[in-house]
Amino acid sequence: MGGNYSVAIDLGGTIIKIGLILDSEIVRFTTISSDSVKGLSHMLPKMEHAIDSLLSEEGISSTDLVSIGLAFPGMVNPVECRVISTNDKYDDACDIDLCHWADSRWGVPFVLENDARLAVIGEWLYGAAKGTGNVVMMTIGTGIGTGVILDSKPLVGHHHQAGSLGGHMVVDYRGRRCSCGNIGCVEAMASSFFLPDIIRSNERVSPDFKIAASDMDFKQLFGLMRQGDENAIIICEECMNVWAAAIVSYIHAYDPEVVVLGGGIMRSADIILPYINKWVEDRAWTPIDRVHIVLSELGDNAALLGLNYYLTSVKRRRNEKVFKL
């Protein structure tokens, strides 16, 4: 079985998703567990084995593979195909020549991009924002990631970070110190990574709840909120207020037609979406038209399919060993 196949890799902190793509569809998919603290070099052999297994399962050889792309959870220079900042995930990645890795292992060109930017590209081309030209996507999970489509183009910027740092916009300049070094970032005030401290430092919740909820995640908290637990309601609403305030800032900054929300926390979308839509409707300065806040349609596959935006171009230039964005 022949064809122009590409491999897309979404490098998460604990799970790495790998998809085999043909004609804009994921035809094979696998996941492998990871520990980002151990570094990217530790995971490359496991990724190689997973990719080769996908090719074998599809009944194709490596000669049918035309490109490989990686969605990285940090700042990258896609033109030079290198990681430039990691923020405590895969910290050795800045020193790894990934183009050489792909070329020496499979003889194919390599594409590298920020994972949140790729997620918004995926939703724009294939998902919840299809048919629009101006989109912001906010991914709420361990951290807060954002990506922006502006006038039907991914927003990149001079330092390749435009639109990607929405999780590090300040919502409380007196707030909690963030992992990025700033104070009061969206991520520091309302993400899973900081949730234990968010609960512990809240003066409105009871001491007993702080003890009982010390190891809880957002899924459990929103479950308690559904049951009417007053302490859980306080925590969840304060986090939703932070997310909504950030979205108002994104709307004022980027003027999108739609804001897409993704990430594991959106499994509680039945509570979160109506709450944020109401907040934004009341507070965003949008006199001409209302900005719709919608749920991701692609879920965990958004970044993988977003890579196809670049991988498709590689297929048209498959004789080149290094692809320049």
From TrEMBL:
It holds the Pfam family ROK. InterPro entries: ATPase_NBD, ROK. It comes from the Bacteria. Belongs to the ROK (NagC/XylR) family. This is ROK family protein (Putative glucokinase). It comes from Barnesiella intestinihominis YIT 11860.
